[in-house]
Amino acid sequence: MTTCKKCKKLGNQCENCKNYEVNYRQTHREKFREYNAKYYANHKEEIRHKDRLKYSLDKEGYKLRARKREIKRIYGLDHEVLLEMISGQDEKCAICRVSFNNGKLGQACIDHDHKTGKVRGILCRGCNLILGHIEKNNNFLTLAKQYLNKLVK
């Protein structure tokens, strides 16, 4: 049976000790940053070697975790919410209805309003690019139509 290292109560870490630790880290954030910077400077090669080894053992998992962090940081979406959005669209692009190939993140683009940042839906790469051109240039569709009509003649 495990015990809390601080207060010796049964369990991994009791709630009081956990809260204390979180609060301590927040109030002494600069001290931790300084320590971590010094540690990294002294152990840089060792840390980089371990990171490269971890990456080489699980490239796909590493890329997926990095993509999840990026989506959370940019759009504020958890991975589960993104998967719900994709399945809510029957795992297809919201515009052209092309399948996302089993909901893989690499093939799905998150459409969002650049002014408000609000997520509108999930699109394929082609539709996302076209929509971006239309938003930037209101005459895009008219110009594209004129171009195609000129080629037909």
Describe this structure in words.
The protein is mainly alpha-helical. It is 61% helix and 6% strand. It has helices at residues 15-27, 29-42, 44-57, 59-75, 79-88, 125-136, 140-152, and strands spanning 109-112, 119-123. It has a two-stranded antiparallel sheet. β1 and β2 form a beta hairpin. The protein is elongated, with a radius of gyration of 24 Å. It starts with 14 loop residues before the first helix and ends with a helix.
Present the secondary structure layout.
Layout: H1 15-27, H2 29-42, H3 44-57, H4 59-75, H5 79-88, E1 109-112, E2 119-123, H6 125-136, H7 140-152
Antiparallel strand pairs: 1-2
Structural class: mainly alpha
**Topology as H/E string?**
HHHHHEEHH
- Note the overall shape: elongated
Radius of gyration: 24 Å
Runs in which pLDDT lies below 50 for 5 or more consecutive residues are none
Strand content: 5-15%
Mean pLDDT: 87
End-to-end CA span = 82 Å
Work out the helicity level: 55-70%
Please describe the biggest sheet, giving its number of strands, its sense, and whether it closes into a barrel: 2 strands, antiparallel
> Which strand order do you get reading across the main beta sheet?
1-2
Count of alpha and pi helical runs: 7
Number of strands: 2
